[in-house]
Amino acid sequence: MSKQPRLPDCEHDPAGIDGVTWNIMGQVYTPKQYDERQFVWHATFPEETFVPPHTHPGQDEYLSPLDGDIDVIIDGRRGTVRAGEIGHLPKGKPHAFFNNSGKVVQAIFWAEPAGELPALYRRIHNIASPKRVTEIAPEYGVVFAPPVSAAAEPKPD
């Protein structure tokens, strides 16, 4: 059996760029390609993990599950992106995604343009508090919806 030739211009290291891997709210993100036009990362979603509703005012985001399904909500509409499909999360539209599949799901995500997303992931790596992540994210061009608990908080006069 002959070995398939490797593409000379592809990254063959299973680790990310410069060996980087990030823990983003319990999910593992591995950066694969980055320039000002786009940012591509591999994501491992443990079962029952999710990314809460958020908006990228200046970026389109895409996802393609490699195995399993990822449930999405885009601008209030529910859907499912299945293995091998490509889901488009348009800039300026609030969206969220959920692993309700009952197993770990691997997926490829990318954002166009890259914007400050890699810097955001570096900053929020290993921060377990979703509240803290939502406070930091706007500095990098990502706006999370207020948590449900915010509905019960008293409004300032």
From TrEMBL:
It comes from the Bacteria. InterPro entries: Cupin_2 (IPR013096), Flavonoid_dioxygenase-like (IPR052538), RmlC-like_jellyroll (IPR014710), RmlC_Cupin_sf (IPR011051). Residues 43-108 form the Cupin type-2 domain. Coiled coil: none annotated. This is Cupin domain-containing protein.
